[in-house]
């Protein structure tokens, strides 16, 4: 299997393309990785520097010729109109079986530093034809234009938000990894089933966990194994890996070896 990934690349921090590539390779999927933007460090660091991928059209044109068919296309961080337009063109030029969109732009009720509301329009367009989208709760609220304070969102709100997102077009929605009543919750919904997955809270914060969750969910999607039971397995696996890191047993931000569904 082959997967094309459009996402940012960070020199410092195990996030975005680094996580996508490692997990896909660990699961036997060949990643075709295309950076949408380059960061000196992920957005949790002060003083990071951003560089746009100014030759994106030339690079993607070459990729299309070399690899005109892939099993899956994954789209992550996109915030430039020329990159967005070129990705849309790519989707029309190549053959693919599944489209997964991770609309990366914020968390904890806020936009990431450097992210903008313009990105929402790009993502709303991209998710129309997606087989799966994997926003966190903040991103889901923004995409659905759900007007309620972030800290007051409950399960009923999450279900309504997922319903609104599915009405835009995606076949399946996972609202991933938010905290409620002392637990980490994720909500899955497609036309066949829906439900919540949960795990204990790990009292540490690790970068790259959202990228890992989205990538592993995309692997379930391409294998046609996307259901609430497997999302719960994924949630439990993420918890186990993060807990191991929190007590000093692992060194990487995201441990790939144990993140198996």
Provide structural commentary:
With 261 residues, the chain is an alpha/beta fold. 38% of the residues lie in helices and 24% in strands. It has 8 helices and 11 strands. The strands form 3 sheets. Strands 3-2-1-4-5-8 form a 6-stranded mixed beta sheet, with helices on both faces. A 3-stranded antiparallel beta sheet has the order 9-10-11, with helices on both faces. It has a two-stranded antiparallel sheet with strand order 6-7. The two termini are 17 Å apart. Mean pLDDT is 90; it is low at 251-261.
Summary, kept brief:
The chain has 261 residues and is α/β, with parallel strands linked by helices. It has 8 helices and 11 strands.
Helices, strands, pairings?
Layout: E1 2-12, H1 16-26, E2 30-41, E3 50-52, H2 56-66, E4 72-75, H3 81-93, E5 98-101, E6 106-107, E7 110-111, H4 118-126, E8 132-133, H5 137-144, H6 155-168, E9 173-180, E10 183-189, E11 194-200, H7 209-222, H8 228-246
Helix pairs in contact: 1-7, 2-3, 5-6, 7-8
Helices and strands, in N-to-C order? EHEEHEHEEEHEHHEEEHH
Helicity, as a percent range: 25-40%
Mean pLDDT: 90
Rg from alpha-carbon coordinates: 17 Å
What are the segments in which pLDDT stays under 50 over at least 5 consecutive residues? 251-261
The structural class is: alpha/beta
Q: Find the count of extended strands (DSSP E, 2+ residues).
A: 11
Q: How far from one another are the termini? A: 17 Å
Strand content: 15-25%
The number of helical runs is 8
Oligomer kind? single chain
Shape descriptor reads: globular
- Placed side by side, the strands forming the largest sheet appear as 3-2-1-4-5-8
**How would you characterize the largest beta sheet?**
6 strands, mixed
